Amino acid sequence: MVYNLTECAALFFAYAAMGWFMEVLYMGVRERHLTNRGFLLGPCCPIYGAGMLGITLLFQGSHYGYWHVFFSIILLCSLLEYAVSALMERVFHTRWWDYHDMKFNIHGRICLETMLPFGLLGTFALYRINPFLMMLFHRIPGYVSGKLVTGVVVLFLADLVISVCVLRNLSLPDGDADHTAEISRRVWEDLKKRLG
């Protein structure tokens, strides 16, 4: 299947929202309280959307076996996670995640414990969730789906601009640690003061 721009955007935002939900749920169980796990204010983790969209476009219509796809997804997700971690640390001088305390990590940015689930979930999403999402998406009339996706893009871009502006003006914690909860708390506090 060849995806058009609207379908690509819909997949990006669907997986960005599912990734955010998965992160919040996983960390909520682990830490016993809910925290916004995203870089943005809204329920969106763009790294998941970008990762799954990249996987989808790379493997659309391919005839590779499941094992080839599984290991390719592990490699692609690991490269993306490492690059995004390094970029965000360079831009904002802090870390959103850190795997130093886990075995088989590389610079605390990626680790084996997350690579395997990404491979499994990515493979499952590619072969099972994508067709389901596209079936749902195509049930929406074209003129409605186009406007819906455009609205989500506008909200996403507004969230991105606000989040980056607020983060650039905050004094964020340094060091090799997962500061996501602290960053999220400070961003919301700063935003409340500004709107206040």
Automatic annotation (TrEMBL):
Keywords of the record: Membrane, Transmembrane, Transmembrane helix
Record-given protein name: ABC transporter permease
Keyword Nucleus tagged: no
Any matching Pfam family: ABC_trans_CmpB
Residue ranges crossing the lipid bilayer per the database entry: 12-29, 38-59, 65-89, 110-129, 149-167
Transmembrane helix is among the record's keywords: yes
